[in-house]
Inverse folding.
């Protein structure tokens, strides 16, 4: 510290207390960054980097942003992955002796921001923490902007996979980990762009004591945490981190617990392949299932719909309850329209209450909350008309907030400024003391005019006037010619060229009152504002309960609106292991204007596996995706794009579609494909839906065919509902070998040398892929196409190889052709194929192909 100025000492003390955090120090009307922090801020914010010379430290880099607009700059730093500490003045500069004391009042991090400009309206902003102890993982997740606080405890053989799947769903903005789980943090950071912070958790006993003290309860059983010590440790990590950063959490009154087994687990590959909430092209929500289903009119409803899509239900009763509500709302178009119109007037109660409770609410936030609370009674009339089932259960949750609405209407000015410091926030007539101060400040000129007239009359000095300067304040100025008429109680303060200036006790009293009235009014207004904000925080529980009801009503209305607009039908959820879809359509493809050919699907106990062959561009991948999306939509409680749908609940959906390198971690496209395929094979069950597209194409033909064949056999043994799209036509023989396997094809019509894609899925396999035709449509040069057809004909003539078939005793034999090469005919005749497995047969076929090509 030696040699540094007192201000630099303050700055470095804050820096030492918050390593890895940018320090923004309040200096006058600016927040200043220094040293390396200034260089970072200047680069990210595109502001000027300046500096000054210091005898001890050389040149000190400096960059600053105006304090009145600091939020937008902080938002950009946070979005860039940085953490920022605000080092504010903590004493009045007018009363400070020497340097104004400063201290860090708030640390903003990606997971703890609550400001409107820093959190997405239609998605949550989560801070999560993970603890590992005795083979269990505790996961706690907090959205401080809405007050949502949930914890779970995970154990089992596939514990790492489970936690990764849950983090893929949550996608926390920031994740707290201890040193034991650093590798997990690196993985999550790379996969989801999550900011990772290392934090050592407290032991379970200390964590429990702090939780009990924080929520003022005697035991954890009311939260369902009495037998979840690792979850308690994770919850304590979240709370300690947020509160240490200066974030008030007055709206947190409980901790919710949940089990990951209550919802369908979706692995990251499946979420990516199905494009549920983000697309594969640019990561936005465009062309996603969310974009199709989201007709919500509130931010709360938008966030809840996203959760439903990311967390499908496994409980049939809960699914049917949602479906019944959607059905009810879809039948009453006018009443639904009235309800949606009323919902449009509702602001984001969760976020508004959250900002009040964390102490960052603006005057306009309070006015928005006032308008919202005042509009809630308008929901009752349309709700009464549809008050059945779940909707009837939601109505009482709206509550009665008339007292708070009356208070806010009386207290707040109709159009206040966004910043409290600008004044005019509290309405006239609400507080007599504030009114008096405002009147004094506002009517100062009138007082001066009246005083001037009164003094002229009492003294008989016609040219006496009241003036003001920065040195003496207010004064009475009298021409020197009238000096003999100045009253004795005038006190002379200054002589000027042609006049004398005086003060009086009354004038100084007025001066003191007027000059301090504005400041006193501002301080009093701030006190009143804080009291009102506190009153809102005291009502946070009932307000957040109303917010939950509104979010669910909005989400149900959204699903009903989409069902009506797009002619979706109510799925029938049954207990059987069945998936029957008539005239199914892809919701996203259809919604974006493409012509669409509906198709059927039937998977039941007699037919568990579909092998789908056909050319490129024929719609195989679309058909697979639409089937998975229809199942997922049904299990979130949505109507589906089909003429009819009957399904048993799927415990999981697995999707392996598309190719993607993971170059950063040294994995090729084929390696990624195999890793994701291995996950499916290790986790699928008889109640799972598995959709696989072109598995095995990233290696040699026979390697890939062997892998695909063996995978299908494995899934057949599991009994999983499987849809397998492939160009390996050889796999069609499995329909003859394995019970419950059926061949289907994406049909085309051949018209001369051209083909027409019909996009119809029909029974029976195919042995053509029409790849050269696709190349022609893509614009490949004609000379290349001609040569490709010549090579294709040559290769197909050499493919007259044995075909693996099953005999009646389930042993394998080779159906022999008469090859032209005598040496091959001899090989085949001498071959003993008893008890040969498909994998061995396919490997043998590969060896024969090599022999043909080399002879």
């Amino acid at each position: 510290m030696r040699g540094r100025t007192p201000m630099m000492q303050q700055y470095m003390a804050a820096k030492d207390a918050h390593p890895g955090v940018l320090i923004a120090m309040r200096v006058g009307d600016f927040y200043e960054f220094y040293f390396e922090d200034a260089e970072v801020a200047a680069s990210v914010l595109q502001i000027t980097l300046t500096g000054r010379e210091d005898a001890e430290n050389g040149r000190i880099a400096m960059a600053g942003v105006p304090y009145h607009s600091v939020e937008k700059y902080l938002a950009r730093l946070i979005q860039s992955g940085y953490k920022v500490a605000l080092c504010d003045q903590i004493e009045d500069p007018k009363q400070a002796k020497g340097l104004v004391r400063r201290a860090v009042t708030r640390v903003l991090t990606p997971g703890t921001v609550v400001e409107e400009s820093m959190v997405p309206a239609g998605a949550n902003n989560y801070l999560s923490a993970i603890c590992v102890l005795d083979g269990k993982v505790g996961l706690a997740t907090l959205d401080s902007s809405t007050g949502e606080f949930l914890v779970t405890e995970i154990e089992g053989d596939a514990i790492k996979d489970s936690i990764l799947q849950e983090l893929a769903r949550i996608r926390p903005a920031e994740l707290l980990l201890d040193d034991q789980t650093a590798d997990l943090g690196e993985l999550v950071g790379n996969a989801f762009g999550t900011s990772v912070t290392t934090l050592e958790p407290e032991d379970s006993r200390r964590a429990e004591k702090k939780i009990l003290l924080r929520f003022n309860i005697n035991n954890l059983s009311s939260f369902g945490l009495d037998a979840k010590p690792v979850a308690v440790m994770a919850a304590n990590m979240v709370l300690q981190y947020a509160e240490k950063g200066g974030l008030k959490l007055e709206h947190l009154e409980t901790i919710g617990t949940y089990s990951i087994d209550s919802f369908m687990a979706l692995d990251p590959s499946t979420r990516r392949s199905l494009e549920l909430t983000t697309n594969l092209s640019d990561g936005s929500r465009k062309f996603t299932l969310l974009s199709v289903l989201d007709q919500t009119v509130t931010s709360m409803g938008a966030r809840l719909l996203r959760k439903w899509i990311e967390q499908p239900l496994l409980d049939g009763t809960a699914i049917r309850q949602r479906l019944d509500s959607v059905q009810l709302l879809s039948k009453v178009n006018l009443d639904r329209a009235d309800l949606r119109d009323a919902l449009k007037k509702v602001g984001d109660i969760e976020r508004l209450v959250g900002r009040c409770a964390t102490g960052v609410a603006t005057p306009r936030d309070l006015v928005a909350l006032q308008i919202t609370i005042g509009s809630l009674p308008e929901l009752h009339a349309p709700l009464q008309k549809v008050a059945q089932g779940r909707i009837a259960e939601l109505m009482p949750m709206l509550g009665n907030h008339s007292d708070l609405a009356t208070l806010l209407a009386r207290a707040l000015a109709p159009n206040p400024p966004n910043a409290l410091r600008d004044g005019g926030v509290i309405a006239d007539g609400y507080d007599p003391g504030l009114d008096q101060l405002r009147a004094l400040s506002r009517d100062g000129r009138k007082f001066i005019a009246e005083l001037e007239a009164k003094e002229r009359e009492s003294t008989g000095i016609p040219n006496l006037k009241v003036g003001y300067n920065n040195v003496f304040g207010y004064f009475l100025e009298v021409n020197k010619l009238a000096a003999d008429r100045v009253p004795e109680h005038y006190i002379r303060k200054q002589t000027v060229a042609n006049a004398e200036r005086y003060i009086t006790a009354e004038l100084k009293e007025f001066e003191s009152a007027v000059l301090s009235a504005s400041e006193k009014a501002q301080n009093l207004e701030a006190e009143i504002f804080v009291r009102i904000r506190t009153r809102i925080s005291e009502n946070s529980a009932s307000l957040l309960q109303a917010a939950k009801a509104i979010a669910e009503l909005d989400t149900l209305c959204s699903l009903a609106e989409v069902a009506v607009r797009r002619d979706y039908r109510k799925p029938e959820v049954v207990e059987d292991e069945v998936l029957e879809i008539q005239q199914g359509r892809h919701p996203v493809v259809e919604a974006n204007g493409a012509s669409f050919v509906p198709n059927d699907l039937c998977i039941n106990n007699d037919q568990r596996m579909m092998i789908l062959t056909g050319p490129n561009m024929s719609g195989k991948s679309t058909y697979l995706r639409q089937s998975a999306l229809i199942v997922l939509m049904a299990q979130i409680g949505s109507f589906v794009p089909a003429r009819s749908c009957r399904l048993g609940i799927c415990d999981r959906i697995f999707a392996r579609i598309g190719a993607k390198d993971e170059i950063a971690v040294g994995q090729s496209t084929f390696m990624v494909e195999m890793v994701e395929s291995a996950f499916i094979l290790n986790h699928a069950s008889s109640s799972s839906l598995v959709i696989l597209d072109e598995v095995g194409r990233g290696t040699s033909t026979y390697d890939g065919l062997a892998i695909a064949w063996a995978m299908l056999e494995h899934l057949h043994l599991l009994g999983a509902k499987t849809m397998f799209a492939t160009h390996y036509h050889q796999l069609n023989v499995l329909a003859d070998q394995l019970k419950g396997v059926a061949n289907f094809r994406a049909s085309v019509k051949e018209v001369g040398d051209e083909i027409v894609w019909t996009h119809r899925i029909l029974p029976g396999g195919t042995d053509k892929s029409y790849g050269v035709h696709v190349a022609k449509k893509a614009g490949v040069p004609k000379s290349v196409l001609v040569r490709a057809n010549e090579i294709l004909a040559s290769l197909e003539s050499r493919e007259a190889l044995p075909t693996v078939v099953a005999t009646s005793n389930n042993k394998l034999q080779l159906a022999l052709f008469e090859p032209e090469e005598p040496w091959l005919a001899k090989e085949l005749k001498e071959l003993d194929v008893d008890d040969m497995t498909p994998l061995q047969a396919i490997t043998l076929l590969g060896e024969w192909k090599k022999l043909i090509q080399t002879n």
